[in-house]
Inverse folding.
């Protein structure tokens, strides 16, 4: 009974884990689109220039730029970049597998050609031996 309960718990955990992984991937991809855009760059630039007009905003700008941008935006960009690279990694793996399959096919063909060459070589040797024996036998005149 315990093993059934443990199995069910594992199944539930794996379902929850998979859903959380999908949600995390979705958030990272969306965040990468937002944080890696020129619009976000201009927003940060304007935000960093606020203390020039209103010096009292300097502590908030420092907090937001060091806390929010460095602790939240940069990791999200990094994870988003990794997720975006997954498709190119998968493509590279598929190309590698296709090349390796072609290499294996070529090896098989080379082995077959080598066997045919050996057979042809032995048959040519037999034919040459037979011709030499025929030339050595005296012919009645």
């Amino acid at each position: 009974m315990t093993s059934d309960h443990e199995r069910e718990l594992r199944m539930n955990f794996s379902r929850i884990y998979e859903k959380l992984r999908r949600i995390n991937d979705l958030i990272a991809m969306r965040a990468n689109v937002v944080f890696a855009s020129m619009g976000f760059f201009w927003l940060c630039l304007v935000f960093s220039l606020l203390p020039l007009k209103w010096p009292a905003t300097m502590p908030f700008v420092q907090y937001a730029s060091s806390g929010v941008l460095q602790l939240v935006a940069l990791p999200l960009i990094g994870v988003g970049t990794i997720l975006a690279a997954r498709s190119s990694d998968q493509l590279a793996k598929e190309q590698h597998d296709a090349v390796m399959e072609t290499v294996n096919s070529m090896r098989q063909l080379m082995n077959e050609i080598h066997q045919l060459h050996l057979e042809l070589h032995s048959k040519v040797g037999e034919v040459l031996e037979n011709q030499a024996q025929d030339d050595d036998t005296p012919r009645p005149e």
Q: What stands out?
A: The longest helix spans residues 58-136. The helical segments are 2-35, 38-53, 58-136. The two ends are 102 Å apart (CA to CA).
